[in-house]
Amino acid sequence: MLRSNQAPKAVVMVRPSRFRSNPETAADNSFQTMHSQSRGREIADAAYREVTDLVKTLRNNGVIVHLFEDDGSRDTPDSVFPNNWFSTHVGGHIAIYPMYTESRRRERRWGVIEQLKANYRVQDVIDYSGLEPDRMFLEGTGAMVLDHDERVAYTARSNRADPVILERFCTHFNYEPMVFDAADGRGNVIYHTNVLMCIASEFALVGTHMITDSDRRKEVINRLRESGREVIELSNEQIGKFAGNAIELSSSQGRILAMSATGAATLTKQQRAQIERSATLLPLQVSTIELAGGSVRCMMAGVHLSKR
Predict the structure, then answer these.
(1) What class, spelled out in words, does domain 10-303 have in CATH?
(2) Which of 138, 145, 156, 225 has the lowest CB atom count within 10 Å?
(3) 221-271: pLDDT as tens digits
(4) Which segments cross the bilayer (predicted)?
């Protein structure tokens, strides 16, 4: 099996103590489900257990997990999704991103970056967060799905993906932007690209029918196929159950595709076979976390850096 830049060996995760479905982000996240305040402690405790169990499962499957704790003192209900505020890149580069809502801006923790510097070779950190007062946002590998091998940044237009910052990121990090409009079956704009697209080493899970312009849809499909990947089409129902919000990881036992149990349950026998030709499917139970409108991919910031 050839080594792939697409599938990191390590991830950063955050275990929350006061997780909840965030009303501040609900306006443009149609995947989100609000819950009653009376269930707050129950929901928070369930989310804590889900992250604990997920980390244990990943480590048992040979994935390195750098786990950070969030004590909830800064009121960061979405801290469990660190992939939105930073990303790491081959060659020792880190990007820090401007976040759309006030509560999500509090998630940035420089201690996370310092620990990465202590364990990995980091050449530079480019911080775009100062653009927030100008109402310019780019929520990391939620807003962008990056093809690290072909250097393409697939991006669905939304409140959380400003085209000016996207161009800056692509110039700094040597990616080509591939932007498109996307909406679900009810016409809701897709808030993050990574709910409708997952790019692995040898395949891509994509809800291509959500790309509203037919010509652009063909261009996206062709570009993925030109990279040598098999395009696996996901239905509206599968994307609504987070089957598109998956991440391929490298482990000591080979490549795995981490996906929520909710999403994995929707896959057809043929789709499973297509995935498992090159990666082992690893279903993970995160149904409480999914109330916040994100799933397994959102919970992991991939580490694409070289060890010291």
Answers:
(1) alpha beta
(2) 225
(3) 999 999 999 999 999 999 999 999 999 999 988 999 999 999 999 999 999
(4) none
